Amino acid sequence: MTNDSFRSRGQTAVTAVFMASLLTATFLGSKLILVGGMTFSLGLIIFPFTFIALETSTEVYGRGFANHLIRVGIGIQIYVLCLIALGSLLPESPLRSLDGAYGKMFGLAPRMILASVTAYAFSQFVDVSVFLKVGKATHGRHLWLRANAASYVSQAVDTVIFSLVFLGGVLPFSVLIRSASVAYLVKIGVGTLDTPLVYLGRRALRALDRKSGQSSLRVEALRTSIFKQGEDLAAFIVSAVPSRFVSEGMILAITSKIVSLAEGEVISSSGLNKLELIRREADIYLGETLFGVSLTIKHGILIPSAGIDESNSDGEKFILFPKDPYQSAKLLHSALKKAWKLDRLGILITDSHTHPLRRGVTGIGLSHWGFKATRNLVGKRDLFGREVKMTHVNVIDALAVSAVYAMGEVAEQRPLAILNDEGIEFTDSSSAEEISIPREEDLYGSLLFPETKTSRST
Questions:
Q1: Distance (Å) of CA 267 to CA 157, 230, 270, 280, 328
Q2: Is domain 217-265+322-448 given the CATH code 3.30.1330.100 in the classification?
Q3: 197-223: pLDDT as tens digits
Q4: DSSP class of 273
Q5: Which site among 105, 357, 388, 427 is 20 to 30 Å from 202 CA-CA?
Q6: Please, are residues 83 and 153 in contact by the beta-carbon 8 Å criterion?
Q7: Which residues have a Cβ under 8 Å from the Cβ of 163 and sit 6 or more positions away?
Q8: 9: which DSSP letter?
Q9: Residues pairing with 171 in the sheet
């Protein structure tokens, strides 16, 4: 079973708990129970479990999945309400005693479900919003505080709306206030006592994500409309990425082509000598090789033609690399964090790349922002206990390879990809220095630059 299958099992399980709690609370809301000499609706005991499931989902899978869960819940409740209404319109059976039982069971259901849907829709979205805002303020710590703060606020919203819609005009106002107050206290009491379940749920869902000990990397390339030169890239991305993919700890990979188009890094190829353009754009021009291809260094990357490309351009145009890829990534990071209300977000601008002695292209990270570019393994022990002396994992290029493979190279129309991996370490800023290596420390430095003295020869 793949990691995606294990993740799907977790999402299915939490969805089942959420929906079962929601529908049970809705239909058993009219069931009254006696506890400690006080009469309560059974729904008050069950409904807080929807908030537990929702907060656990938000913690593990992010706002996108949680909001998707809420919308599905609204749809199911409306669907059930329609079925009940349809059942009420059908001809009565001669067995009137059974029909009377149906009326007794579902007579108040339409109004109750209307109250439930209305209260649910407002309170659940409030729950997710408060949970994430408190999470941002606490930097993702103190799950108990985040869960209870969200629950207390959202349960208040739910109680007020449900009481007004379902019982408004049925009970005297003073009785309604007293009833709503008791209901609220019962719900937050149950929610507080059930806080350990949020921890258990988070642990179980994350365990499924890590199941089998394999990498938890997940990649989803997104098909979009064709991006036009001069469009607002941040706005384009926000409209192109479905909310279910937006979650804390996501990496957004963006092909450098649309970044360049957004920034106007495009030049007409009509009457232009491409070799002269390459020499002008390259940071270092290394010379011409087979098939008239020029090898260059641009933005610290060994790449043909200084990254200049004619493919997927509208008309006779050359698309250049972004002038400052790290500034581009930084600006997108800031705009998208604000638009998506995320605390942990990574931006990865990608391009295609070739490797010596290898046929075909793979992806490479042109720039990144919001997460660490490498993972230092120096000092770690291998399988046989030997200490690792010099290994650093190149995180951005590893992610870029997966992203570019999923996005495609020709007419797939997938310029964006969402990546999720638990091993990513997020930061507030990034720089090219994280991934760059001085010539004298580069294994291939003396081949590319014969005059360079390696650290071993000095």
A1: 56, 13, 9, 13, 19
A2: yes
A3: 888 888 888 777 666 444 568 899 999
A4: -
A5: 427
A6: no
A7: 176, 179, 180, 183
A8: H
A9: 168
Burial of 267 (0-12, 13-18, 19+ CB in 10 A): middle
Query: Contact at 8 Å (CB) between 43 and 28?
Result: yes
Query: Residue 398's closest CA among 437, 362, 361?
Result: 362
Q: Report the phi/psi class of residue 169: left, alpha or beta, with left for phi > 0 and alpha for psi in -120 to 50.
A: left
Domain map (residue ranges) of the chain: 3-209, 217-265+322-448
Q: What is the pLDDT of residues 75-106, one digit of tens each?
A: 888 887 788 777 777 776 665 555 455 555 45
Contacts of 454 (CB under 8 A, 6+ apart): 440, 441, 442, 445, 446
Smallest Cα–Cα separation from 344: which of 252, 244, 235, 222? 252
Nearest to 348 by CA among 365, 330, 323, 328: 365
Encoded amino acid at 96, one letter:
R
| Alpha-carbon separation of residue 336 from 35, 229, 251 (angstroms) | 49, 20, 11
Which residues of the chain fall short of a pLDDT of 50?
Answer: 1-3, 99, 105, 212-214, 454, 457-458
Domain 3-209, CATH class in plain words: mainly alpha
The reply to whether domains 3-209 and 217-265+322-448 share a CATH topology is no
Between CA 320 and CA 283 the distance in angstroms is 13
Distance, CA of 52 to CA of 19 (rounded, Å): 12
Tokens of 69: 């869960």
Cβ–Cβ < 8 Å for 191, 148: yes
Rounded CA-CA distance 245/251 in Å is 10
Q: Which two tokens stand for residue 289?
A: 């090789």
Beta bridge partners of 303: 296
Residue from 246, 267, 285, 296 nearest 62 by CA = 246
Sheet with 250-255: strands ordered across? 218-222, 416-420, 250-255, 345-354, 361-369
pTM above 0.85, yes or no: no
C-alpha closest to that of 288 among 300, 304, 274? 304
